[in-house]
Amino acid sequence: MSSSSIGQRFVFTSFGESHGKCIGATVDGCPAGLEIGERDIQTMLDLRKPGQSIITTQRKEDDKVEILSGTYKGHTTGAPITMIIWNKDQHSKDYDNLTLKPRPGHSDYPAFVKYNGFNDIRGGGRFSGRLTATFVMAGAIARKLLSKTLGIETFSYTCQVGSVKMKEHATMKMKNSVYSNEVRCPDPKIASKMRETILAARRRGDSIGGIVESLTVNLPVGLGEPIFGSLESDLSKALFSIPAVKGVEFGSGFHGSTLHGSENNDEFLIKNGKIQTKTNNAGGILGGISTGMPIVLRVAFKPASSIAKKQQTIDLHTKKSVSLVVQGRHDPCVVPRAPPVVDSLVSVVLADHAIRAGFIPPVIR
Amino acid sequence: MSSSSIGQRFVFTSFGESHGKCIGATVDGCPAGLEIGERDIQTMLDLRKPGQSIITTQRKEDDKVEILSGTYKGHTTGAPITMIIWNKDQHSKDYDNLTLKPRPGHSDYPAFVKYNGFNDIRGGGRFSGRLTATFVMAGAIARKLLSKTLGIETFSYTCQVGSVKMKEHATMKMKNSVYSNEVRCPDPKIASKMRETILAARRRGDSIGGIVESLTVNLPVGLGEPIFGSLESDLSKALFSIPAVKGVEFGSGFHGSTLHGSENNDEFLIKNGKIQTKTNNAGGILGGISTGMPIVLRVAFKPASSIAKKQQTIDLHTKKSVSLVVQGRHDPCVVPRAPPVVDSLVSVVLADHAIRAGFIPPVIR
Amino acid sequence: MSSSSIGQRFVFTSFGESHGKCIGATVDGCPAGLEIGERDIQTMLDLRKPGQSIITTQRKEDDKVEILSGTYKGHTTGAPITMIIWNKDQHSKDYDNLTLKPRPGHSDYPAFVKYNGFNDIRGGGRFSGRLTATFVMAGAIARKLLSKTLGIETFSYTCQVGSVKMKEHATMKMKNSVYSNEVRCPDPKIASKMRETILAARRRGDSIGGIVESLTVNLPVGLGEPIFGSLESDLSKALFSIPAVKGVEFGSGFHGSTLHGSENNDEFLIKNGKIQTKTNNAGGILGGISTGMPIVLRVAFKPASSIAKKQQTIDLHTKKSVSLVVQGRHDPCVVPRAPPVVDSLVSVVLADHAIRAGFIPPVIR
Amino acid sequence: MSSSSIGQRFVFTSFGESHGKCIGATVDGCPAGLEIGERDIQTMLDLRKPGQSIITTQRKEDDKVEILSGTYKGHTTGAPITMIIWNKDQHSKDYDNLTLKPRPGHSDYPAFVKYNGFNDIRGGGRFSGRLTATFVMAGAIARKLLSKTLGIETFSYTCQVGSVKMKEHATMKMKNSVYSNEVRCPDPKIASKMRETILAARRRGDSIGGIVESLTVNLPVGLGEPIFGSLESDLSKALFSIPAVKGVEFGSGFHGSTLHGSENNDEFLIKNGKIQTKTNNAGGILGGISTGMPIVLRVAFKPASSIAKKQQTIDLHTKKSVSLVVQGRHDPCVVPRAPPVVDSLVSVVLADHAIRAGFIPPVIR
């Protein structure tokens, strides 16, 4: 299987480069009969668009999606759906000196060695965060599929920036307030502090990391397959494909490893006539299978590697130490643009598993 | 692809159930010509064997591996290597009442719904931690392959139990002291405190969680493939298949998300004539590709779900709330048995990627 | 994906060697709840057993199947089903001189080069026709699954041996007479001539080729996926894995390439209230998708390569021409043993596609 | 894995519809450093272009390929290579009455049922022969890769049309004369008779079938993997994805099944200092592995289903029998356009296997 692809029945392939002609996504295995159009995808793409505020990169992109195949009369046909965005606003000159002076924290060095210099380094090429727009294209389809057929809804938000964090999990009620501020945090007070933290980093030519939390509701019991097809396995595989992600946890996660079983186990009870758990430290997944409780996961983003501060690196040609100041327009914090990306990958994985588990049929009638 | 399989070129399939006839592993794609025998696998299996001390389950298993296929005259042949362990010491009666009274924190409930009661529930069936012995069988082969061809070595250890944690990363020097104590922590003082914590939990009929850290050295630059074949993606997919794992992080991980780019970026320098980084917050992986620095990752284990304390659950037949005391012999803390399992999965993933990247040829000459 | 595996949802992996400890099959993805036992598999295995008559090899094998995993209380559990047959009656000495003197028509030479001599050459190792018993193990499960859930039935028979051939296709009525004679041809007169042809070849220390035809009925419309998941693609991939197969055709096949469209097209009509075609030159498949008409395919087997006649080959050590007489007990014609093998692979592929197309659910209730 | 994809390391995905916006191909896994440009692909595409002569469809297509990703400075980068052809000359009206009146011999009926009418039926949609242009895009890359790295060359030609056939196999010398005539037969006299046969069919509003033979030389020993990764398995899987293909055979193929082992076995000898076989009835493949001898295979094409003659079908709405005359411009014989398509798929499969077997490295230096 291609390393640019993910999924078994709902298969998403990502192609394109940051400063090439286009970036694109192909989704194969989406059931026929789903009503979908460019507008559905554009709406979700717009949520991750750069240049929306002073806390993200000033690079402006239209990012207009174009569906090339796989739909007919406004519905999916069962054929592969290929979508592209033509690249426009590239400043490739900014990257001209990077080949031989690898940027700390970037893929420049290992990529140069791996591809012997043949990789497209403009704008980071395949390693650019821009490629996450292809995740969103595929995710928009997955999301609509899950919503229309099973009522599954997923929403992600910024729960931490640097040391500023939300004290509690968000609730479904907060869903609509995520996009009411530019950091994508549903708590407006915390959002304000996060914004300060990002601006402070920016002023110093620095960057700052953070955490995105994702919540998915209305899952049926039974998605996920032991052993290597566990929901945690497939979700983490997808999420670690986002550049800058260095940690993924489910439910009580790393904190849970400090607890006792009697504290961490979720007791079963009947609520509203349904079997549920009193707490949800499992994050909605037991034995790799969905329990019907909300899936809760957190994704740790390292601070963006591109900073305006002077750093030490090696000139690969002379093998001498040199200093480097990374040029170009960059996000001081990538986290505020990440929630739609996380939503997308979660949806792609769940759509695949919902088809595999027989919850979504090959044709939507 | 089967959900019981992982890998593209070095493909590992796990089969068997906790209390069935046997548990087994098939490895396909291992290069021909690797010297391997049952002893190589047994040695590694013995490191995770239960019943070794008072802090793990008292269930005694011989766990003698038998190679059924794929070797000839003491070497791999290029054919699939199937290995099994015959199950012996099962106490299936202990689990008789579990079908209809799902244990909190276990897969009982979602598995029952998913398989409509057809799954083998004895000893947890497919969901049992016992299946991790199959990971070790495959891992022993992967480890030897990596060691013989590339000199790659991986070692894991317990770095946290409950709130007791090591202050610093282990170094390669500590490698040999990992197995000198029963908690598998290379720092003997911390090990002693961890042991206390586990015994305290045990006395209360409770369990406790913890964290395993893994270190891999001597990697060439260039393992891993963007986008969905990133090392982080494939390592996390493998690691989340271990029952009880709820979090995985690389390098500075979750802590890194609180940092600034200027703190977290690893500057390049020349050391011993080789390009290295000053720090290793990336955990040896940039852009999903190995940098040549040690791969550092941490795996969070929740406290074992099986505890002797009374818990509330639902009788699936009557749909009424009932209380439950889990019978059987269980680990108060699974972490001390986890390091060889983590080593194994890391090795399996790296062997696959080393073959994919052309570092290991189809035949070892 | 492992080269020893086939299928996407119903995944069959074959392992073992002709003269190793055992041969085995793992089926992953079989829906839970299918009633299955060793007897179901043994019954089908017995149909391909060698030593049944004077026209096949005199090698006697018990070939008793043992299910190692994946069933519980007589039903499938949704977990991988591993089955093995312990090898017994090997005469490995017969093959001692083969390593360096490759047999004409055998895999000896390319396998020796590919694996640098590490492959298990005893009895042909992985390349032995004996491995087709693993196809039958998996096929027996697939067949029962298809029969129980959809009423699909497949049957194959010898339609040609050397130049002796049936004049017409077999009909479903003939199904029961296939196994009434040792050549597996439903026409007793033709069967008798085929037997003569095989015995004549045998007397001369020679072998003879032949053709197996396969008929599958009761398929729903809609199995198969364009483009590379066409039924013809997946069936041929499976069938060409049988040693000695050198040709596969569907419906009018090679003969159809001499016809005009007006002769070869199958016109649609209503029969018994169902849409059918007047003729079935398409062999039940249009555009790679099942039409509901019987799937008709033919598989060409070359004459067995192992013959008692003296042949020329090369001593790989001296690089000199030498003559060779292949020792051991061999089938003068493999075709009579092939029908259950063809049935098995057809069933495995159709089971996979029936699951993929949503015709068989993850659990049989 | 997507059903629109083929290959494990050199992965080709086909997308697009006959009368949609475009048709396209994505190749992932092509080694970095291969010099490639649109001209390389265009040259091969032009060989299958319709409208070249009176014996093929009069539909005119420019079929200009555009590379969207995966190359940089004229070389492959290791990233997925996406290529498209914008569709132009569609006459979609011609197909308006097809939905409810399925054409005999076409995918209309099973596709309608499978997709519940949601599939794009214009011009055959996904089932159109036009999609074979995407095979050629991928094939052009594979061909250049094989040629540059290993000197492997493949060439295909029309060896039979209706009952007119070449008496002998083509030789490498004839390679250049294949495209000197419009039927793509290297024997000019036979070519002339084939042309007559096609024109005669055309005059009657009918079509005619034929056979393409493919020859590949300079293969190393050792491509192909037992059991389901045999060269025959993977080549046939690819070739049966060509619409209209109903048979595939290797070496002596179906004819070989009438022979004795002593006739069909290829004896080994030393020629030009290399181990070769005296004859090549195996078609260059033993045990699924390349022997170093030329790969010889034949592909049977049924007569094109679209004919101008009146045929009987069923109105899917009224369930009544109706007569149908297929409108539109069609090939009276698809065979003359098939050789570059066969070449392409053979090259795609061999490129994949050459990478898997370690004969082509991840980077071409």
UniProtKB/TrEMBL annotation, chains A, B, C, D:
This is Chorismate synthase. Keywords: Amino-acid biosynthesis, Aromatic amino acid biosynthesis, FAD, Flavoprotein, FMN, Lyase, NADP. Pathway: Metabolic intermediate biosynthesis; chorismate biosynthesis; chorismate from D-erythrose 4-phosphate and phosphoenolpyruvate: step 7/7. GO terms for molecular function: chorismate synthase activity; FMN binding. Gene3D superfamilies: Chorismate synthase AroC (3.60.150.10). Its cofactor is FMNH2. CDD domains: Chorismate_synthase (cd07304). InterPro entries: Chorismate_synth, Chorismate_synth_AroC_sf, Chorismate_synthase_CS. Pfam families: Chorismate_synt (PF01264). PROSITE patterns: CHORISMATE_SYNTHASE_1, CHORISMATE_SYNTHASE_2. HAMAP family: Chorismate_synth. It is an enzyme of class 4 (lyase). NCBIfam families: aroC, PRK05382.1. GO terms for cellular component: cytosol. It catalyses: 5-O-(1-carboxyvinyl)-3-phosphoshikimate = chorismate + phosphate. The lineage of its organism: Archaea, Nitrososphaerota, Nitrososphaeria, Nitrosotaleales, Nitrosotaleaceae. Belongs to the chorismate synthase family. This reaction introduces a second double bond into the aromatic ring system. GO terms for biological process: amino acid biosynthetic process; aromatic amino acid family biosynthetic process; chorismate biosynthetic process. NADP(+) binds at R48. It comes from the Archaea. Its EC number is 4.2.3.5. FMN binds at R126, F127, S128, G287, K302, P303, A304, S305, S306, R329.
